[in-house]
Amino acid sequence: MSLDVPTAVLASAERRELDDAQFVAVVRDSLPYAWDVISAAADDQAPGKPFGEHEVPPPSEKERGQLLRAMASNAIRAALERHFGVVLAFQNCHRVAAFAPSAVDGDVYREFVSPRGQVLNQSPELRDC
Questions:
Q1: Which domain covers residue 81, as residue numbers?
Q2: Is the Cβ–Cβ distance between 50 and 105 less than 8 Å?
Q3: How far apart are CA 42 and CA 58, in angstroms?
Q4: Of 86, 87, 39, 109, nearest to 67 (Cα)?
């Protein structure tokens, strides 16, 4: 299961009253490692820096699973992007980049998400990540 959903939040969803703040809180509480990684990448943005990033491999499979669930779910990823005001990019089961939305049309973003960027970011120690 990806998320631990409190009864009150489930009831809101059933009534079609679930808002972004409720959903983001569920994500934060259910996937704390993923939340910390994405928060760190968003906080790492700085003037003159093309993007913020986090590229430390997770300490265990539990944390890796949290990050993979957050990045693989369209709903979770989109909610995190809205919450942090970024566009997320992902490589190697752990490298998360947070781009300003205005950077998505730029060369740095396109290179990061390109097949070439993915291939250049490979290494044998990350083979099974």
A1: 33-126
A2: no
A3: 17
A4: 39
